[in-house]
Amino acid sequence: MSDPxxxxxxxxxxxxxxxxxxxxxVNGYAVATAASGAEALNQIESDPPDLVLLDIVMPEMDGYExxxxxxxxxxxxxxxxxxxxxxxxxxxxxxxIEAGADDFLTKPIQTAEVLARTRSLLRIRDLxxxxxxxxxxxxxxxxxxxxxxxxxxxxxxxLERLKRFFSPQIAEVVADDQAGLLQPHRRDVTVVFVDLRGxxxxxxxxxxxxxxxxxxxxxxEMGKLIIEHDGTLERFTGDGIxxxxxxxxxxxxxxxRAIRMAVGMRSAAESLRQRWSSLGADLGVGIGIASGFxxxxxxxxxxxxxxxxxxxxxxxxxxxxxxxxxxxxLVSDRVLSKVAVLVESSxxxxxxxxxxxxxxxxxxxxxxxxxxx
Length: 373
Known about the structure:
Elements: E1 6-10, H1 14-26, E2 30-34, H2 37-46, E3 51-55, H3 63-72, E4 81-85, H4 89-99, E5 103-106, H5 111-163, H6 168-175, E6 185-197, H7 199-205, H8 208-228, E7 232-237, E8 240-245, H9 254-277, E9 284-301, E10 304-310, H10 312-323, E11 329-332, H11 333-339, E12 343-351, E13 360-368
Parallel strand pairs: 1-2, 1-3, 3-4, 4-5, 9-11
Antiparallel strand pairs: 6-8, 6-9, 7-8, 9-10, 11-13, 12-13
Helix pairs in contact: 2-3, 5-6, 8-9
């Protein structure tokens, strides 16, 4: 149950004070009294009431002056004030309005009128308090919102900085402190190796500046395609790139994404070939793709961690890439089985790959099928 409203009765005549105080108390109000204007102002400052019933005729400081001072104080300018007078109602009403009074009562006091005007002004006061409370809440919410937005902006900036050095997926895991996702685990992934053909010869004949310019253009174009197809970049090794799909976040159709990315990479390299030739570089790309289970997780030591995929599938993709000629995309039988209807392909037979005891049945992907583009 809420506390009763508090009414301050201000009058230098004890009989009038008692009459109003008893009436208000009987009707459930808390009542405070003051015998002078100065005493009233002190009480209002120390223990603010919800409404003031203020007599006009008082020594030293009349009711008009008390009302003006109440209105001059920002803390009490909305405090309801009812002026009580036995003087000419018309004349006193004008003076009261000028002083800032909210309502008027004429002596002798009518019980029903006092209670009605008190209830009416207290309802208005409660509405004012509700608005003030809501305004404070809104201000606090705005401050908290600004703090949250600032924190989120800082987090986004941090994430963007991380993404400059890590694959976006790994950066998000690190930024969100989802360390569990980086623990060693087993998952079915699709692995892509990309390598520049003719790069070794180019490094022997080119200036370091030209070499770095070619690599920067190559990495920029390949990086766009990796991000576009939701691949996870494991590492750059000079002209070599390793990407895997379906980790650390699982995604639909990892084989299809890998194939589409590889086709896009081959086209991008063809577009760059003319530019590279002006630097004396005859370069192209070979791509190998395999799918299967691998162990994935963070590797390294405290202070320097990488995220890697380890297993037969990564070796298959790397060896297929080694075998691929300029512009060739070689995929394992398992990869093709998932995307056969989407691509135009031709078998290349069973390849004897370095490090494998058995030949690997492989296929060349020439491009996307007509209806799958």
